[in-house]
Write a structure and sequence with these properties.
TIM Barrel; globular; 5-stranded parallel β-sheet; single chain; about 15% strand
Length: about 180
Amino acid sequence: SVHEAYFAVGVDCVETNTFGANHSALGEYDIPERVYELSEAGARVAREVADEFTAGDGRSRWVLGSIGPGTKLPTLGHAPYTTLRDAYQRNAEGLVAGGADALLVETTQDLLQTKAAVLGARRGLAALGLDVPVIVSVTVETTGTMLLGSEIGAALTALEPLGIDMIGLNCATGPAEMSEHLR
């Protein structure tokens, strides 16, 4: 019903409800093995609604597969990098299998975590023989840096070689505070 409400008011694209369908968040509920299953289900629900609206008026609708950061930061040693990367791969594979048109690695606060998510997504796409856009959205705090201290220039420098299709900012602040980072 949430996806329907967005499409009903004219949006072209919705995000899946899979922000927490990752290893660390699901691990807190003792179900980290369900990353793929919940990612696929979240994308499938959004895809079905998008397809219904497209069939109704012929206008294309898209689904962004949300890959949230989770609660464990590898730079701080909360979880091993490879564990997170491999789980993000399962996350991406499930989202694409469910019908996501693009992958959105979002609300990242740790560049190593961001790298794990992007490379996991790329590995998943390669394993499936697919190529969909990979979008990243970093979070810059009111301090002017990401949670672990990286400023936006460092983030862009670190992320650009990963072949990200689009990068943006989200969360923590509003548009006024983001304008300097955009500049």
